[in-house]
Amino acid sequence: MDGLRPDQTHTATNLLAQSWWYRFYFSPPALSAGLHGVVRA
How far apart are the first and last CA of the chain? Predict the structure, then answer.
């Protein structure tokens, strides 16, 4: 993490998380299984 300010690291993490969650939530298996368990996990 050298050379990155905390806010820059946080932004990069958010972008990765948003991309991952977007693909996961809108994938057919996630929709068919339901999201309640995923939210609590």
Answer: 27
At position 17, the amino acid (one-letter code) is A
> How confident is the model over 1-41, as pLDDT tens digits?
466 677 777 787 777 777 777 776 666 776 666 655 555 55
How many other CB atoms sit within 10 Å of the CB of residue 30? 14
Where does the chain have alpha helices with state H?
6-25, 28-33, 36-40
In the Cβ-directed half-sphere of 33, how many Cα atoms lie within 13 Å? 12
Residue type, 31: L
